């Protein structure tokens, strides 16, 4: 549908505080029914972006369009209530003196019958049928959050803006509520912009992740794409611990203790960082001082000595001191794998799972 305008579009949205652009030319497009997660570390400008779209913060530059019509720009500045936007924040408290049904119906402009039908429909969607007459204090945190979602969705907003909506919830509740929320949002068809600093939340919820750093969008794409083809080292490091092997590219190849890596596009003599996530290191046993045979996919094995092994529930993390250059690498293994410190093992690197970037000093690598 190339001619259908995006439900929400921002063009070069910019906000400066004290001469510093905390949001710097942010351009996003979100289709109806699409969930985009604005993901980034604290202070990178996520909330300010959301607040500008909501209309409670005035951009210094740029344009905001909803269904192709400008709501903010050189000639327009619609107030928040005229934008058809629903909001949900972590501390967006329910009205304590109103019942659940009254809370959900609060922003609804409809006659009594239509109102009560909409309230019933939404309470059913969030699995709270029968809770209409209760008061917020009689509900658990997760139930209150579901009421808040129903309340935000009641007037059928075209766009839902959510700022860390689940961060106040107990870990055990969170996954279930994320899934229910996602289901309801999809059914309602609103375009959703969800702000989070948690990569797991973005991977779980998003159709598209917009990774933000220092006021700018550094990468946009599906969760699969952003995780598996990070734009740079910091983008890779934002989603998991990473292992870095430094080398020098010569003739589009880089020689390392794990064998040669293809490093096309890097100048002769340029330092490169070969990056591998802990779950993509392969571990093999020592065979009387030798490791497994090299393969085209896994390259040459390199010897390491276990320093520490920790069980984290779903996986075990094993830290190695490698024989080469005092290197330390961390491997993650599904389930229980707890070799004793001092055990000698061999590591290999899956060639299809590494990323190669120009070498960066550590001080430039923060996301
Ligand atoms: N009204 C303001 N005046 C001055 N600086 C501000 C103002 N609002 C935000 N900032 C600054 O802008 C930057 C971005 O803030 P913002 O809240 O958008 O970040 P964030 O990515 O949402 O972070 P967090 O997840 O911690 O909320 C921060 O450095 C913040 O201190």
Automatic annotation (TrEMBL):
GO cellular component terms listed in the entry, alphabetical order: ATP-binding cassette (ABC) transporter complex
Keyword field contains Chloroplast: no
Annotated GO biological process: quaternary ammonium group transport
Residue span(s) of domain ABC transporter: 8-239
Pfam families, A to Z: ABC_tran, TOBE_2
UniProt cross-references to SMART domains, sorted A to Z: AAA
Keyword Methyltransferase: no
GO MF terms, alphabetically ordered: ABC-type ferric iron transporter activity; ATP binding; ATP hydrolysis activity
Record key words, sorted: ATP-binding, Cell membrane, Ion transport, Iron, Iron transport, Membrane, Nucleotide-binding, Transport
Domain of life: Bacteria
Protein name: ABC transporter ATP-binding protein
Naturally occurring in which organism (per UniProt): Gemmobacter fulvus
